[in-house]
Design goal:
The structure holds 2 protein chains of 2 kinds.
Chain A (H helix, E strand, L loop, with lengths): L3 E4 L2 E4 L4 E8 L5 E7 L6 E7 L2 E5 L6 E7 L2 E7 L7 E8 L12 E2 L3 E5 L1
Parallel strand pairs in A: 2-11
Antiparallel strand pairs in A: 1-3, 3-8, 4-5, 4-9, 5-6, 7-8, 9-10, 9-11
Chain B lengths: L2 E3 L3 E5 L4 E8 L6 E6 L6 E6 L3 E5 L2 E6 L4 E6 L8 E8 L5 E3 L3 E6 L1
Parallel strand pairs in B: 2-11
Antiparallel strand pairs in B: 1-3, 3-8, 4-5, 4-9, 6-7, 7-8, 9-10, 9-11
The chains are: A mainly beta, B mainly beta.
Chain lengths: 117, 109
């Protein structure tokens, strides 16, 4: 138990569906992240939120839409995805991002395994 | 460009010692992390090195040489539960984490 909970753990969707991934952290952290993890590839940072404000968007396609209503919750809204978007989507949190992070240690959720048909 | 290199897969025997190497070329350096990720689970923090030398934490040790752009994770007295992927990541000058693709460690009895 890392203190970061992601739902759903598994999701299968068609290319025309709309779905959302949810992340909740119980650690009192101020920064939250979405990462994409594909087999045998480095983790790809997608979005960073610091104190509910989006501070990074790493050229992510608009079919991925993040939402951060408060410092404890983070969503990733998905629509008209492509099969190459199939991957494990990891949420993480830290005390702060960038220089505000003391050690940069991230606390990850177990991920949402997404399959796009 | 920025790059982190680590072996894709390694195999070791229960009770033995294994060293997982990580080399990096990044824009600046503000520390190097090792994370462990069991299949189907969240990556979890193992170690953080920002100064040269060896940091020991139980059966696990992490070494850093900034001049060589090199780190290794040393696992002693291997147990079956150490079968996992080990991720190396460097915090660059912009405090962005640059990740390696991970090393899958297989432990055999």
């Amino acid at each position: 138990e890392t203190g970061v909970t992601q739902t759903p753990r598994h999701l299968v969707m068609g290319m025309t569906n709309k779905k959302s991934l949810k992340c909740e952290q119980h650690l009192g952290h101020n920064a939250m992240y979405w990462y994409k993890q594909s087999a045998k590839k480095p983790l790809e940072l997608m979005f960073v939120y610091n104190f509910k404000e989006q501070t990074e968007n790493n050229s992510v396609p608009s079919r991925f839409s993040p939402e951060c209503p408060n410092s404890s919750h983070l969503f990733l809204h998905l629509h008209t995805l492509q099969p190459e978007d199939s991957a494990l989507y990891l949420c993480a949190s830290s005390e702060g991002s960038g220089r505000a992070s003391v050690t940069g240690e991230l606390f990850f959720g177990e991920g949402s395994r997404l399959t796009v048909l | 460009g920025q790059n982190i290199d680590q072996p894709t897969e390694m195999t070791a025997t229960e009770g033995a010692i294994v060293q997982i190497n990580c080399t990096y070329q990044t824009s600046g350096f503000n520390g190097l992390f090792w994370y462990q990720q069991h299949a189907g689970e969240a990556p979890t923090f193992l170690s953080y090195n920002v100064l040269d030398g060896l940091e020991e934490k139980g059966r696990f040790s992490s070494f850093l040489s900034r001049s060589k752009g090199y780190s290794y994770l040393l696992l002693k007295e291997l147990q079956m539960k150490d079968s996992a992927s080990y991720l190396c990541a460097v915090l660059d000058s912009n405090y962005q984490l640059i990740w390696g693709a991970g090393t899958k460690l297989i432990i055999k009895p």
